[in-house]
C-alpha cells in the first residue's frame, strides 16, 4: 500500500484531499540489457548496498543523547547537576554528575551494542555471493550483493534469498515456473508460483547473450502485489522488436527465497533501498515502554510539587530576611554573605531557591 497522506489542518470543514501536499512525480524507470556506456541509465539508480542501523560514527553521540533526554528523569537530574556547579549548592558537583554519567553511559552503551549487531547483520547480508553476468566477458562471475546493480542479470539457486527485485527471465524447467517463499515479506509460509514470459523462458546459461531488451516500469513504490511495466524485446530474442506487458507474476521481490527450483535467471530492476521490502520498512523504533511513560507523568507531578515547595519557601525566607533578620544581632546581619543580605531580598530568594531545589530533590530520587 502507498504511504498515508500527510494530514493538514482543515479550515471551514474543507475535505482532506484539498489540503494534500503535491508530490513530485517520478519518471518511469528504464532498465536496458545489455547496458552500454551511452545508455547506462542504471547508474542514477540506488545501489544494492543496504543498511538498517540507526547511527553512524558521526551521529551516534547526538542521536543517542537525544534518545536519552526524551526521558524526563534525565532532564531533571541534568538540571540538578548544573545547579550543583553554583556557589549556592549544598552538595559537591561530582555527587550529582557521577550518577548521571553512569546512567547515561550504560544506556548509550546498550544502544551502541544493539546498533553494532545491526551493523554486523548488514555486513553479512551485503557480502553474500551471487553470480552476475558480465556482458563484456560474456560469462557469469561471482560478486557480492552490494556490487549488484540495476540492469544486471543474475542467477539465484535453490534455497537462496533474492538479492534484489527481479524480472523473472527463465528457470531450468520447460514451463518457465518457479516457487518462492514470501515469509519475510508478508509472513506467509505457503509457496507462490511465478511465471516468466514465454519469449524468455528458454534462456539458459549458454544462451543468455541472446537476451536484449528494454524494461520500462513504474518508479520504486511500496505496493507488494502490484506492478506496472512492459518489456521491449529485441532480436535475436524475437524476430522483430515487440512490446510485452509485464504482470506481478513475473516479478520476484527481495527477501523471498527460491524453493523447489534448481536455479533461475533474473534481471535486476530495483536494488537496495528502492526494493519493495525496504520501501515498506520502517526505522528501528525508539524503545519506550508504557512504564516509562507512566514514570514521566509521575515525575512531572513530583516536579510540580517540588517547584511549588521551593518557590513558597524562598519567597517566605526572602520576606523574613528583609523584615526580621536586622533585628537578630546574633546573626551578624551586617556581615552576612550575599545570599543572606537583608538589603537584597531578590538575590536571597534566588539563592535560597537553588539550595532548596537541590536539597528537596530527594523527592525525585529513584528508589
Description:
There is one protein chain. The protein has 367 residues and is of the alpha+beta class. 31% of the residues lie in helices and 18% in strands. It has seven helices and 13 strands. The strands form three sheets. A six-stranded antiparallel sheet has the order 3-2-4-13-5-11, with no helix packed on it. Helix 1 crosses helix 3 (94-126), helix 2 crosses helix 3 (94-126) and helix 6 packs antiparallel against helix 7. The longest helix is centred in the last third of the chain and has 35 residues, at 290-324. It starts with 28 loop residues before the first strand and ends in an 8-residue tail after the last helix.
Give the strand order of the largest sheet, numbering strands 1, 2, ... along the chain: 3-2-4-13-5-11
Number of helices: 7
Give the low-confidence spans: 1-22
Give the ordered list of helices and strands: EHHHEEEEEHEEEEEEEHHH
Percent of residues in beta strands: 15-25%
Radius of gyration: 33 Å
Mean pLDDT: 85
Shape: rod-shaped
Q: Tell me the span between the first and last alpha carbons.
A: 47 Å
Query: How many strands, which pairing sense, and closed or not: the largest β-sheet?
Result: 6 strands, antiparallel
Helix content: 25-40%
What structural class do the secondary elements suggest?
A: alpha+beta
Number of beta strands? 13
Amino acid at each position: 500500500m502507498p504511504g498515508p497522506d500527510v494530514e493538514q489542518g482543515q479550515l471551514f470543514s474543507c475535505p482532506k484531499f484539498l489540503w494534500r501536499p503535491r508530490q513530485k512525480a517520478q519518471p518511469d524507470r528504464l532498465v536496458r540489457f545489455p547496458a552500454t556506456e551511452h545508455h547506462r541509465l542504471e547508474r542514477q539508480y540506488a545501489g544494492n548496498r543496504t543498511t538498517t542501523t540507526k547511527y553512524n560514527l558521526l551521529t551516534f553521540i547526538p542521536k543517542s543523547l537525544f534518545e536519552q533526554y526524551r526521558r524526563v528523569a534525565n532532564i531533571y537530574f541534568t538540571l540538578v547537576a548544573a545547579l550543583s556547579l553554583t556557589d549556592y549548592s549544598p552538595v559537591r558537583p561530582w555527587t550529582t554528575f557521577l550518577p548521571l554519567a553512569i546512567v547515561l553511559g550504560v544506556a548509550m552503551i546498550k544502544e551502541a551494542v544493539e546498533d553494532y549487531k545491526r551493523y554486523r547483520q548488514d555486513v553479512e547480508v551485503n557480502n553474500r555471493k551471487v553470480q552476475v553476468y558480465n556482458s563484456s566477458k560474456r560469462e557469469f562471475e561471482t560478486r557480492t550483493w552490494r556490487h549488484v546493480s540495476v540492469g544486471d542479470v543474475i542467477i539465484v539457486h535453490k534455497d537462496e534469498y533474492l538479492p534484489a527485485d527481479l524480472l523473472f527471465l527463465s528457470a531450468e524447467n520447460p514451463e518457465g515456473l518457479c516457487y518462492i517463499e514470501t515469509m519475510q515479506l508478508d509472513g506467509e509460509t505457503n509457496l507462490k508460483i511465478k511465471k516468466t514470459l514465454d519469449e524468455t523462458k528458454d534462456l539458459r546459461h549458454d544462451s543468455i547473450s541472446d537476451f536484449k531488451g528494454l524494461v520500462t516500469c513504474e518508479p520504486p513504490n511500496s505496493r507488494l502485489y502490484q506492478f506496472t511495466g512492459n518489456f521491449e524485446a529485441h532480436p535475436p530474442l524475437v524476430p522483430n522488436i515487440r512490446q510485452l506487458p509485464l504482470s506481478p507474476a513475473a516479478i520476484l521481490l527481495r527477501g523471498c527465497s527460491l524453493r523447489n527450483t534448481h536455479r533461475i535467471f533474473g534481471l535486476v530492476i530495483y536494488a537496495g533501498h528502492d526494493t519493495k521490502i525496504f520501501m515498506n520498512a520502517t526505522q528501528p523504533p525508539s524503545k519506550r515502554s508504557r512504564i516509562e511513560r507512566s514514570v514521566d507523568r509521575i515525575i512531572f507531578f513530583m516536579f510540580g510539587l517540588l517547584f511549588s515547595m521551593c518557590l513558597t519557601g524562598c519567597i517566605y525566607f526572602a520576606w523574613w530576611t528583609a523584615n526580621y533578620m536586622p533585628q537578630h544581632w546574633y546573626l551578624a546581619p551586617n556581615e552576612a554573605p550575599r545570599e543572606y543580605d537583608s538589603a537584597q531580598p531578590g538575590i536571597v530568594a534566588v539563592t535560597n531557591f537553588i539550595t532548596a531545589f537541590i536539597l528537596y530533590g530527594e523527592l525525585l530520587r529513584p528508589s
